[in-house]
Amino acid sequence: MTSELDRSRALQAAALCLDYPDETLLGRLELLRAAAHALPGAVGAGLARFVGHLADTDPAELARDYVDTFDLRRRTCLHLTYYAYGDTRKRGMALLRFTHAYREADIVIADGELPDHLAVVCEVAARQPGVGLRLIAENRAGVELLRMALADAGSPYVDVLDVIRAVLPEPAPRDLDRALALARSGPPAEEVGLEPFAPPEYMGAQR
């Protein structure tokens, strides 16, 4: 996808779709349909398919599925640094890289947001691609692992990941190898007796 406008639309739509499916998101279905109609080929078709899922599914079921998918499964966490660092203290340093990148670009995220949440990074990439796309590229193995896990689970959210991947270069072999290694081993764990760097409530995908 070469058009900057298409790339921005795709990333903004993905950011919305990865948010918790509350009344605010469901009230934007027409906006998302319009974005799907404007996007080319398979990207628009995939987005349209996911928007149809949102429209046709009971809101309570959507909410349960979101929590089950992103809050309760380690392999489908929406926080990109979790894949490489788990709940170790090294993840705190990785999060600081996101925070510093946002600060240098005068980007402010909402209180309570973790800067590596994929919806946050997609929104940043839609507005300032030089910042957001670089951060996604640096965590490409996590994106690929998330996509694999969603596909394995038969989740409709795989369409949203494909929208994101459509605006990125093809993954490097090292990213695919890293994703497969993480799929086998899972995120690293902190040594016994050390506290996680952030409270448990920040480890899920509620935004």
Structural overview:
With 207 residues, this protein is an all-alpha fold. The chain has a single domain (4-187), classed as TorD-like, CATH 1.10.3480. Helix content is 65%, strand content 0%. It is built from twelve helices and no strands. α1 (4-17) packs parallel to α4. 38% of the residues are buried.
Rg calculated over all Cα atoms: 16 Å
Helix content: 55-70%
* Class by alpha and beta content: mainly alpha
Biggest sheet, in brief?
A: none
Strand tally is 0
Which stretches of 5+ consecutive residues score pLDDT under 50? 190-207
The total tally of domains equals 1
Per the CATH scheme, the topology name is: TorD-like
What's the quaternary structure here? Answer: single chain
Give me the CATH architecture, please. Answer: Orthogonal Bundle
CATH class: Mainly Alpha
Alpha-carbon distance between the two ends: 28 Å
Mean pLDDT: 86
Portion of residues in beta strands equals under 5%
**Approximate shape:** globular
Instruction: Write the H/E string, N to C.
Output: HHHHHHHHHHHH
> How many helical elements?
12
Distinctive features:
207 residues; mainly alpha; TorD-like; 65% helix; NO3_reductase_chaperone_NarJ; nitrate assimilation
